[in-house]
Design brief:
Strand content of chain B: 5-15%
Shape of chain B: elongated
Order of helices and strands of chain A: HHHHEEHHHHEEHHHHHHHHH
Number of helices of chain B: 5
Largest interface: A-B, 22 and 19 residues
Largest sheet of chain B: 3 strands, antiparallel
Radius of gyration of chain A: 23 Å
Helix content of chain B: 10-25%
Structural class of chain B: alpha+beta
Number of helices of chain A: 17
Shape of chain A: globular
Structural class of chain A: mainly alpha
Order of helices and strands of chain B: HHEHEEHEEH
Number of domains of chain A: 1
Helix content of chain A: 55-70%
Oligomer: heterodimer
Strand order of the largest sheet of chain B: 2-3-5
CATH architecture of the domain at 67-160 in chain B: 2-Layer Sandwich
CATH topology of the domain at 67-160 in chain B: Alpha-Beta Plaits
Radius of gyration of chain B: 27 Å
Number of strands of chain A: 4
Chain lengths: ~425, ~170
């Protein structure tokens, strides 16, 4: 164990924890603002700290504080197994969090000939870990639904469990087709495989090589994470709030946050498996390392361009209408954030210029890793936005329609796809 | 079978409908359009930023908070006839009558209070009043208070409100 390996392991773990946990408030806020904008409203944009509202993201932190200081209430009819009632949301939350921990954020970092994985849990069988741990989350839902001693909770938990059973099969079969195609169970090797091209010009992303399996994967993951249009487990028009009916305060928040971590994890799995993970299309890690100065010069243009666009966006949208007399510090906020962004852009540009002019193997490698992490985060948030926009587009499936879709369409399609994949792979390799 | 029976056409059985994907695409087109239009210019979103922006669509027929009107010499127009209290479906008007000394009328209210927590803002009191003494034209739509007693408006408060649409004095008593 060298010092570098310990530092990288700690960094990867901290990054993973931050990406999983710090995105929860951001995702909750994104969900509410997106819902507002889709429905021609504004969404939460008032809460602020010293006039800094950051588009309203402070609201989520205020909500967390509110849930933390709420009364811990236990329904009196829960006599036995109260401790399982308490740990049930924790199981769901922890399972979703652990499943996220095997996603690679960047390519393997090679320092002094030592390969260091940029994964919080550096294992090379990540797909199995994800499938095993990801399915544990529903156990928390079943515990919660059963121990609530409430028919709505029980119905919700039963629906969640049956959905997992129905959709774990097509999900597993779709993933098996990817394993057969990529010939690996390592997420990082999958990304490396996808950074190649096929037919000479198309990036070898899973969505282009395995379109059917990709669609099945996306649909099954929507169902696994209990997102619309598969929210039958908490269908409030039929069964109040499903398994969450008897939960309140932080116990409810655990379920709620677990849902968002699961969504985040699903997005990460989708982009890692079928959208090339942390790679840009046509750019492998070797290309990035070999021609770093060119990429540095391109980035030096993109970063100020982004900052310029961001400042323009803030100036246009972070103000009140003419009919309102006071702008409650919005102009001041825009000014401060603009100055901060400009300073950041100048610093990033200076570092990139230094790296481009005075190449240094270790520094270049770390810079490439950072670039890949940024690409990963951008892709992750883009896919989270897709999850959110789909939620505000589609109505909920009826319960029997969910089961029909799972058993009668997705499962045969996944089997058929696996069959074809196996034949093609055997044919190509023999 | 009667010819009046209408056969409702059933949708959703064609291949295009069962694939879901074309419908999802059409739905996404709508929501994405709204999302990006509003994201690009959030000030064009047609909402009222309430505490800073006040409603602009309160018309003269809007039933706001009640007020008691005055005569031309600024005395109270009410003659304490109890018509409004009788008409009130939620029994929220409490009147105590007393002798009026200035020869304009025989009676006037000693106290006149409206419990706005009970009031359903139906406007029957305005309809019932023979003296145009009670009106709901203040345009006030929100009343706040710390305790229940704050919401019981007495005679002085009711006389203090101004009409939002002109016509300050009572039209039936001078």
């Amino acid at each position: 164990m060298s010092t570098a390996s310990i530092v990288v392991a700690v960094c990867a773990f901290v990054l993973g924890a931050l990406l999983a946990l710090l995105t929860i408030p951001v995702l909750v806020w994104l969900e509410r603002r997106t819902a507002g904008l889709v429905q021609d409203r504004l969404g939460p944009n008032r809460t602020n700290i010293f006039g800094f509202r950051l588009g309203g993201v402070v609201q989520s932190f205020a909500d967390v504080v509110k849930l933390l200081i709420k009364e811990e209430y236990y329904p009196s009819h829960i006599k036995q197994g109260r401790w399982i009632f308490i740990i049930a949301p924790i199981i769901t939350f922890t399972a979703a969090l652990l499943a996220f921990m095997v996603i690679p954020f960047a390519d393997t970092l090679v320092i002094d000939g030592e390969a260091l994985r940029m994964q919080p849990i550096p294992i090379d069988f990540g797909v199995f870990w994800y499938l095993a741990i990801g399915a544990v989350g529903v156990i928390g839902v079943i515990f919660g639904g059963w121990l609530s001693h409430n028919k709505y909770s029980l119905l919700g938990a039963m629906r969640a469990a049956s959905m997992v059973v129905s959709y774990e099969l097509p999900l597993g079969l779709a993933i098996v087709s990817f394993i057969v195609t990529y010939n690996t169970v390592d997420f990082n090797a999958m990304v490396t495989w996808q950074s190649e091209t096929f037919f000479g010009f198309l990036p070898a992303w899973g969505i282009l090589i395995q379109p059917l399996a990709s669609i099945i994967l996306i649909v099954a993951l929507f169902a696994e994470t209990n997102r619309n249009p598969f929210t039958v487990a908490e269908g409030e028009s039929e069964i109040v709030a499903g398994f969450m009916t008897e939960y309140s305060a932080m116990k409810f928040a655990m379920y709620f946050m677990g849902e968002y971590v699961a969504m985040n994890t699903a997005s990460a799995v989708i982009i890692t498996m079928i959208f090339g993970g942390y790679q840009l299309p046509w750019v492998t890690t070797e290309t990035l390392l070999g021609n770093f100065s060119y990429f540095a010069y391109i980035l030096m243009f993109i970063v100020p361009l982004f900052v310029w666009w961001m400042i323009g966006f803030m100036k246009k949208n972070n103000r009140v209408r003419p009919s309102v007399s006071s702008d409650s510090g919005r102009a001041y906020e825009t000014k401060v954030v603009s100055i901060f962004l400009i300073i950041m852009a100048v610093m990033v540009d200076a570092i990139l210029l230094y790296l481009a002019l005075f190449p240094n193997a270790l520094a270049t490698q770390i810079a490439v890793t950072l670039i890949q992490i940024v690409i990963f985060v951008v892709k992750l948030m883009a896919f989270n936005m897709f999850f959110i926009l789909i939620r505000w587009t589609l109505p909920r499936f009826r319960y029997d329609q969910v089961q029909t879709l799972g058993w009668k369409y997705l499962l045969p399609l996944a089997l058929f796809n696996l069959f074809i994949t196996a034949i093609v792979v055997v044919g190509v390799n023999s | 079978m009667s010819k009046n029976i209408i056969t409702t056409p059933r949708y959703g059985n064609t291949l295009k409908d069962r694939l879901y994907i074309p419908a999802i695409y059409e739905g996404c087109k709508v929501t994405f359009k709204h999302f990006f239009t509003n994201l690009n210019d959030s000030n064009a979103v047609d909402t009222l930023e309430y505490p800073e922006e006040q409603p602009r669509d309160i018309t003269s027929r809007y039933r706001g908070l009640h007020r008691l009107t005055h005569r031309s010499d600024d005395s109270v127009a009410c003659v304490a006839c109890f018509m409004c209290a009788t008409a009130c479906p939620s029994d929220c008007i409490f009147i105590e009558a007393t002798q009026r000394d200035d020869d304009k009328d025989e009676k006037m209210p000693k106290s006149f209070s409206i419990d706005t927590l009970e009031c359903i803002f139906c406007g029957y009191c305005v309809e019932a009043c023979p003296c145009d003494a009670i009106r709901m034209d203040t345009g006030i739509f929100s009343l706040t208070g710390d305790k229940r007693e704050d919401f019981v408006l007495n005679k002085e408060q009711l006389l203090g409100f101004k009409g939002a649409f002109g016509e300050e004095k009572s039209c039936a008593r001078d």
